[in-house]
Amino acid sequence: MKHIWKLFALFILFSCESSKFDSEVFLPKLFGDGMVVQREAAISVWGKGIPGENVRVSLADAVTSATVDADSTWILKLPNLSAGGPFVLEINQQIFNDVYVGDVWVAGGQSNMEWRLKSQVIGAEKEFAEGGNPQIRFFKVPNSYSAVKLDDVVGGEWKVADSVNMKDFSAIAWFFAKRNNKEKNVPVGIIEANWGGTPVEGWTDAEILAEMEGSFKEQAKDVVENNQSWDAKLKENESNRQLRDSLVSKPDSLAALQVAAISYDDSNWRKINLPQANPLQHIAWARKKFKLTNTDNVSLHLPNIEQMAYVYVNGKLLHYKDWGKTLPEMEIPAEMLVKGTNVLTVRAINTWNNQPTIGKSEEMYLLQSDEKTSLEGTWSYSNSTVEPQLPKVEWYNWMPGMMYNAMIVPITNYTIKGAIWYQGESNAGRHEEYKELFSTMITNWRADWGLGDFPFLFVQLANFMERKDVQPESNWAFLREAQNQILELPKTGMVTIIDIGEEADIHPRNKKDVGERLWLQARKVAYGEKNLASGPQFDSLSRQGNELIVKFKSAGEGLKLKEGDAVKGFIVAKEDADFQQVAGSIVDKETVKIMLPEGIETGEIRYAWADNPEVNLVNNLDLPAEPFRAKFE
Description:
Blueprint: H1 2-18, E1 25-26, E2 36-38, E3 43-49, E4 54-59, E5 62-67, E6 73-78, E7 84-91, E8 94-109, H2 111-114, H3 124-130, E9 132-140, E10 158-162, H4 171-184, E11 188-194, H5 206-209, H6 217-225, H7 227-249, H8 253-259, E12 270-274, E13 284-292, E14 298-301, E15 305-306, E16 308-313, E17 316-321, E18 330-332, E19 340-349, E20 357-358, E21 365-368, E22 371-374, E23 377-382, H9 402-408, E24 418-422, H10 434-449, E25 456-459, H11 475-485, E26 492-495, H12 512-525, E27 537-544, E28 547-553, E29 560-561, E30 567-574, E31 580-588, E32 591-595, E33 603-607, E34 617-618, E35 628-632
Parallel strand pairs: 2-8, 8-11, 8-24, 9-11, 24-25, 25-26
Antiparallel strand pairs: 1-3, 3-6, 4-5, 4-7, 7-8, 9-10, 12-23, 13-19, 13-23, 14-18, 14-21, 15-20, 16-17, 16-19, 21-22, 27-28, 28-32, 29-34, 30-31, 30-33, 31-32, 33-35
Helix pairs in contact: 4-12
């Protein structure tokens, strides 16, 4: 009987206690079903509620509580938990299922980090066929910007890496997360906070930038001192963006079929000579008539359209091209064609700069029985006859602090393992500022998160643009040097990809190697392993007679050439003279010898110093040697 009364008393006590945690709480969007929280670290949980009310949080075997402050906010920390799941997270009366404990990374930067797995990434089809991984989850912070610091992101949800969701994940972050999961046997969460085309100052606190010297200072001061007026400008700009997106998203199907029909009268349209001239703007429609004597086995070759396009043949939709993709070789069904006159119609949109382009020389033709019919030459086009002109949308998100306020500040309470970053293309024209700007951003983020010097791993710019053997004034080379100098900060790691870029595309499709090279850095910087994580790095330069001796570290089992029999990529110059190419030869596991041209006594040597240098020096992991420059005498 006494035992029963004890149980009853405990029941009453539990009931009274539980009633203290039934007040409503409001949580950031990062909290939801399928989330991943950081293992082996204090897990921050925060939100808003009724002042004075109690909040209790439980996850796995951890329970803690707090009281809502007078300003309606509360924050608490769950103790360290080991990797595992799925668990249930309870916060007062709110329940979140399928929660895992593992490693959480922020994936930041511009378009090369944002680049989706489905956007013609090399090897993507194999990834889709494998079906994903239920222990990997992504949270995509929507592209947003603000003149004031926000306390929550504007949207987003955790998505499991299944064969459908993973197609929209950052390709680099996916390959990185896959290695993290496989090698550490832990769940992995990726918080994507990236946006194509963006400069580093947009991801940094404007209040800090306003106190620094640089091209960004006046804008930063303006944002800080006039944030209320900026708030109004941003709302108007956002309204214009929403209107623009609604206009470009999909054409009116009936109108599109009429405009794309053979019988449509385009006599009042202007004429354009494609691809030589491209005066296209807004939502551009372009038409080209062609004749056929046979409708069988006709295919269209028109891979170069920027950015998005709807392609019609005789009033019927043949293909939709999304941004980031090229148009494939398209077989035109015979039933779409007629003997005699046909018409090809393209609706093209470029929301990047409002200037779509169609075609490239020798890449515009119909193919039938191995015979080409050129589509170059005169087309009819309209920039505003079919659909209205687009409203002007400014890139205010590029301004100091704008993306930081909306996409970084709201997530800085979330406990993370570290960050991976790919950015710099948009700062190359101001490379002299980049070391200070980028190091400021990293320090800024670390201070905001309050986790100490968390691992920050970043990608050095890839090779890109026309190949030039000698290019000492390359902005991209100077920007790479500035990135290398960031390694002076503690717990940073840099990935060199000077070997896997593409001359004609700023978005190289080999994202797998980038993600996996970032993982090599993570093993070393974040997990303390003694692995080889970098390509050969410049160590020292000496002179022996008419020879320069370059010593490298991070050579692993030894330097080697990926192809050829001489080291490519070196240029030298004596002081105040022009640079010239020189070849090098591998002397031993960590040494390269360069024979100096006659007449050069003192001067400078540079390696991989161009937008798109030709290089072949690697270590035993096939990781490329890092660009550098050094003086000699």
